[in-house]
Write a structure and sequence with these properties.
- This protein is mostly beta strands.
- The strands form three sheets. Strands 1, 3, 4, 9 and 11 form a five-stranded antiparallel β-sheet that branches. It has a four-stranded antiparallel β-sheet with strand order 2-10-5-6, with no helix packed on it.
Length: 240
Amino acid sequence: MWYQRLFGAAIEAAQKFALAAGQKKAKAMPGELIYIVPLDASLSDYEINLGAGETGATTIPIEKRLAFKDNFAVSGMAVGVLPQTVHATDGPLWGSDHVQYWEDPNVFSVAIGSAKLTESQCIAGVWNGYFSLQTNEDSKIVRMPLRGFRRILQTQRSTQVTGFSGTTSTFNTHNMQDGGELQSLGGVVKIAGGNENKINIHIECKDKTNLVGTSTRKNYLVVVLRGAYIKGGTLAELQG
C-alpha cells in the first residue's frame, strides 16, 4: 500500500543524513514515535515536546518519545483521540483501547446535557484545527490544517451492521488501523533529540465541556510520527 512507502522514503533520507554525519548507513532503521496527552476542557492549544528528556514527558507505557542521542526522519503522521478506559482505583488501563481517527458517536457517546455540544462534536474539533512543527532553530511546518488526518471508512469502528445472509444478528465492524491513518507530510522532516522539537496542536472547538470523556473513560490526544531513526545521530552532529 502507498502508506508503506512512507517507511521507504524515511529510510532513504535517514541513510543520507547518517552518511552526512560521518556514520554508517546501518545507523538508519524504521520506527515510530507516539505522543499522548490528556484532553483538557480548558485548553485549545497543546504544546507537545518530542524529546524524552524535555518538559511534558510521561510514564505512559504505550508512549514512545525521541531519545536525546538520536535523530529521526519523519515521513508520515497520524492524529487521533484515544478513549482510554479508567479504573476506579488503578487509573487508566493502558493498552486496553485503540485510538480513534474520527468523532465516532458510538465511541464518544456523551449527550449534550447542559453543554452546547455533544462529546462527538467536541472531538470533531481536533480535526478542524491545525498544527505546527518547530525546533529551536526554525519552523518546519506552520499551521497545517488537520482535516486530512480524519479517517473514517476502513480504519474505524462504525455503526452496527447486519450479519451474513440469513441471519438477523447485528455487530460492530472492527477498527482495522491498517496504516491508512498515517498521512504523508509532503516530504521528509528531520528532527534531532537534542533540538527542543515541538508540535503545537490547536483544537477548533468553542465549547469543550464534553471533550474530556467520563469518569470511567478519559480522552487523550495522540500523535504518531512514522519514519526512521538515525541512531546516535545527535551525538555524531555534536561531536562533528
